[in-house]
Amino acid sequence: MPNSFSITRSRCSVLSDPTLRDEIHAHTGSDAETSSILRSLDRFGQDVSIRYYEMTPTPSRRTYQPKSAFAWTVRAVR
What we know:
Layout: E1 5-8, H1 18-28, H2 31-44, E2 52-59, E3 70-77
Antiparallel strand pairs: 1-2, 2-3
């Protein structure tokens, strides 16, 4: 199971940055899971009260073959 990880808000200022995608992918090991996390980060916008984002994996509970083995919870920490 992958481990939880965090990224500072300033690090996420440019979500299209390929190195940010690579950093997240190194934690998830999955393109689909990486894209899902990036979409979640995008929904938070540029709220300056956020200090960092915390990503926590949860095993997928789907009964059919999932595209992703884990669902990731993305939480903004203020």
